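Whiteboard transcription, Tuesday session. T.W. wrote the C-alpha coordinates on the left side:
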Protein backbone atom coordinates (compact mmCIF):
# COMPACT_ATOMS: atom_id res chain seq x y z
CA UNK A 1 0.00 0.00 0.00
CA UNK A 2 2.75 2.46 0.95
CA UNK A 3 4.68 1.70 -2.22
CA UNK A 4 1.61 2.38 -4.32
CA UNK A 5 1.24 5.83 -2.74
CA UNK A 6 4.89 6.64 -3.30
CA UNK A 7 4.69 5.57 -6.93
CA UNK A 8 1.59 7.67 -7.66
CA UNK A 9 2.08 10.18 -10.47
CA UNK A 10 2.56 13.81 -9.52
CA UNK A 11 -0.41 16.09 -10.13
CA UNK A 12 -0.16 19.58 -11.52
CA UNK A 13 -1.02 22.59 -9.41
CA UNK A 14 -4.19 24.22 -10.69
CA UNK A 15 -4.89 27.87 -9.92
CA UNK A 16 -3.09 31.14 -9.80
CA UNK A 17 0.14 31.33 -7.87
CA UNK A 18 -0.10 35.11 -8.23
CA UNK A 19 -2.94 35.14 -5.70
CA UNK A 20 -0.76 33.40 -3.15
CA UNK A 21 2.10 35.77 -3.93
CA UNK A 22 -0.08 38.82 -3.44
CA UNK A 23 -1.43 37.42 -0.20
CA UNK A 24 2.11 37.12 1.09
CA UNK A 25 3.11 40.50 -0.34
CA UNK A 26 0.18 42.22 1.40
CA UNK A 27 1.68 41.47 4.79
CA UNK A 28 4.40 44.12 4.34
CA UNK A 29 2.10 47.05 3.58
CA UNK A 30 -0.24 45.99 6.38
CA UNK A 31 2.61 46.13 8.88
CA UNK A 32 3.77 49.45 7.41
CA UNK A 33 0.35 51.03 7.74
CA UNK A 34 0.10 49.82 11.32
CA UNK A 35 3.47 51.37 12.14
CA UNK A 36 2.57 54.67 10.48
CA UNK A 37 -0.71 55.05 12.37
CA UNK A 38 0.82 53.96 15.68
CA UNK A 39 3.58 56.56 15.28
CA UNK A 40 0.96 59.23 14.54
CA UNK A 41 -1.09 58.28 17.58
CA UNK A 42 2.02 58.33 19.79
CA UNK A 43 3.15 61.71 18.51
CA UNK A 44 -0.33 63.21 18.89
CA UNK A 45 -0.66 61.83 22.42
CA UNK A 46 2.70 63.29 23.41
CA UNK A 47 2.19 66.67 21.79
CA UNK A 48 -1.46 67.33 20.84
CA UNK A 49 -0.80 70.75 19.34
CA UNK A 50 1.32 69.18 16.57
CA UNK A 51 -1.53 66.94 15.32
CA UNK A 52 -2.22 69.18 12.32
CA UNK A 53 1.42 69.22 11.29
CA UNK A 54 1.97 65.49 11.59
CA UNK A 55 -1.32 64.60 9.88
CA UNK A 56 0.25 65.57 6.55
CA UNK A 57 3.04 63.06 7.08
CA UNK A 58 0.47 60.47 8.17
CA UNK A 59 -1.43 60.67 4.89
CA UNK A 60 1.75 60.87 2.81
CA UNK A 61 3.13 57.71 4.42
CA UNK A 62 -0.21 55.94 4.10
CA UNK A 63 -0.47 56.74 0.39
CA UNK A 64 3.06 55.59 -0.37
CA UNK A 65 2.67 52.30 1.49
CA UNK A 66 -0.73 51.63 -0.06
CA UNK A 67 0.71 52.32 -3.52
CA UNK A 68 3.17 49.49 -2.96
CA UNK A 69 0.28 47.13 -2.21
CA UNK A 70 -1.52 48.20 -5.38
CA UNK A 71 1.65 47.69 -7.43
CA UNK A 72 1.85 44.20 -5.95
CA UNK A 73 -1.62 43.23 -7.11
CA UNK A 74 -1.12 44.82 -10.53
CA UNK A 75 2.17 43.00 -11.11
CA UNK A 76 0.53 39.76 -10.00
CA UNK A 77 -2.00 40.07 -12.79
CA UNK A 78 0.58 41.18 -15.33
CA UNK A 79 2.94 38.29 -14.62
CA UNK A 80 0.17 35.71 -14.48
CA UNK A 81 -0.71 36.53 -18.10
CA UNK A 82 -4.34 37.46 -17.56
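and on the right, the sequence the group agreed on:
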Amino acid sequence: MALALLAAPATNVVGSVAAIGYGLAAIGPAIGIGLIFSAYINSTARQPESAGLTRTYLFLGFVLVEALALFGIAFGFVWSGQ
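Someone added at the bottom: The two ends are 42 Å apart (CA to CA).
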